[in-house]
Amino acid sequence: MYSKAFAPEYQGALTALSVNSSLPDVLAAANEQLATARSDGSPLEAARAGLAAAEAYRRLGRTEEAERAWKDSYRTARSAEDVGAMAWALWSGGTLARQCGRLALARRLLGLAAELGERGGDVVARGYSLAGMAETGRIQGDYEAVRRLHEQLLAEARRRGEARHTVWALEGIAQIHRNTGDLDTAHGLFAEAAGIAADAEDHRGHAWALRGLADVVSVRDGDAERALALLREAERTCRTMNLRSALAYNHKMQGNVRYRAERFEDARASYAQALDEFRTMSEPRGEALARLGLAKCRARLGRDLAETVAELDELAVTMERIGLRHALEMVRRAQAEFTPAVAGTVRGVAP
């Protein structure tokens, strides 16, 4: 039903690269091809190579270099008058903006990318850009507005038999169900995504699906050991492919699982590791979530309550500034949990 996963962001002379190619290898090949294309005077090939470089830099957490690369790719694509290549460059820029917590900019760039993809007849660029808009809305907690778009994109991906995009859409819908309390549906969707990703050899998608499954297993079933086993399996993939952002979110989830199991010392170590990784990548959403988990662990381990309350107040401002409604709700729950009247008597829900 589904073809093997492929990476449409690797174009032109780089189409031989696999969706599972290690990011350092992708970056080396992209920069080599970029130099060749410039030497040959081929702006379209240069734009395509620049896109691959931008995505490698982004996934490696090298955000400043990613910013320069996608903008250069866009300018080069525009000079080549290739609308599709312009759409892909804007998609990369919008995805980077979301990663860096600039959500309004992300929506604007991804919207422009979708328009250009449609105008240029690039169905995949349009689909990926709309998917990026849906994911941005989901991260903000705007579930009703983006649920239908997720489902529309899932139907389109299934119709084309495109495994990677199907996996992404299933994971997005599953996350909405998980965050709104329908854990059985979330578990089924994450499991389906994991199965499709495994069959299609989409290692990145499989790692993210396992992370989602681990979250649900931890919350619904209270099975910390099973959840941690799933996360360790996903972690191996993240390390093999050098998926730094995915690895940081994996470590943050390990903190969540350990916190729910009341293993507060272990949870603190996991959150601290994730926090360092997010800060290295300049990823403010992940950093804020890791800080929230760390603050709750420290409170459980005897930190002065006034310090905890002050940090939670600061985190509430941060979540509101970034525009993370669901995360802000988690901070509000933590504030209620650790007010003097109830501190030490209520077990909260990990972020």
From TrEMBL:
Matching Gene3D superfamilies: Tetratricopeptide repeat domain
Cross-referenced InterPro entries: TPR-like_helical_dom_sf (IPR011990)
Alphabetized Pfam families for the sequence: TPR_12
Name of the protein: Tetratricopeptide repeat protein
The species this protein was found in: Streptomyces spiramenti
Classification of source organism: Bacteria, Bacillati, Actinomycetota, Actinomycetes, Kitasatosporales
